[in-house]
Specification:
By secondary structure, the chain is mostly beta strands. It is built from 1 helix and 10 strands. Strands 1-4-5-10-7 form a 5-stranded antiparallel β-sheet, with no helix packed on it.
Amino acid sequence: MTPGEGEMVDGKLKMLPGGGLGSRQAEFRFDSSDFRFTVGKNNALYIFSLVLPKQGTQLVIKSLATDAGYFKQRIKRVSLLGYSKSVKWKQDADGLKIFYPQNKIPFSTSVVFKIE
């Protein structure tokens, strides 16, 4: 599995600058194509969107395209942590497409999706 996807800088994923917290970190910006991945002890894949998606938008995680080869399991369910309703999604040759809910959700900085 790849650690994430998004803008590349010098051949690596764009990362928050290191060092003490200051203006460099406060002014640093990710965009809607920046995602980071981790696998939990339960073998679920967690996708962190590094920005808060706009209501009703479609997120595309290219690394999870049907032919990408990164995630060998068949995706059975996609859920948004902290959100009790179901999330619409589909997986195809372009990627995993997650349809972010239309209704207002009380998140303010980023969101996490659980992939099973």
